[in-house]
Amino acid sequence: MLWIKALHIVFVTSWFAGLFYLPRIFVNLAMVPPESVAERARLLLMARKLYRFMTLLALPAIGLGLWLWLGYGIGRGPGSGWMHTKLLMVLLLIAYHAFCGRLLARFERRQEARHHVWFRWFNEAPVLLLLVTVVLVVLKPY
Fold first, then answer.
1. Which pLDDT tens digit goes with each residue over 37-54?
2. Residues 6+ apart with CB under 8 A from 104
3. Which residue from 142, 1, 132 is spatially nearest to 69, judged by alpha carbons?
């Protein structure tokens, strides 16, 4: 079980690296002047590759987490109310990840009109979700 837990932590950490960085690329894309075609193309290529890579990292992170929960019973039984909130955080992260894919598609079609400041704030969401998740897992408050 410890190997599964260790791999889960590695994949979650790697997935979060992508969740932190992709919106930073969106900030840069939102700031690219219309005449900078090469810069825009380079940022879109980076964003596309990162999105694919972080999706490949998310799948084992989620799969291993489910294995720990359902296979080993971590977070089940009395005193495991925190797990329900953690699962909500994971669902929110999956939704955030999917929304990043939608934003990327909008950038590729030149339909994304949000200001770079919006993307700077959007970039903070996974930080808050990570904070709540770590507090829940470590403290198990309920």
1. 999 999 999 999 999 999
2. 22, 26, 44, 47, 48, 51
3. 1
Query: How far, in Å, CA of 54 to CA of 29, rounded?
Result: 19
Q: What is the dihedral of CA 67, 68, 73, 75, to 10 degrees?
A: -130
Give the pLDDT band (50/70/90) at residue 76: confident
d(CA 18, CA 93) in angstroms, rounded, equals 12
CA atoms of 140 and 117, how far apart (whole Å): 35
Residue 126 tokens read as 């996974």
- Tell me how far the alpha carbon of residue 26 is from its chain's centroid: 14
CA distance 84 to 25: 32
Write out pLDDT tens, residues 23-38. Answer: 999 999 999 999 999 9
Instruction: Work out the end-to-end distance of the chain between its first and last CA atoms, rounded to an integer number of angstroms.
Output: 24
pLDDT (average), residues 4-10: 98
Tell the burial category of 28 from Cβ atoms under 10 Å away from its Cβ (0-12, 13-18, 19+). Answer: middle
- Please give the structure tokens belonging to residue 140: 């198990």
Show the tokens assigned to 120: 């700077």
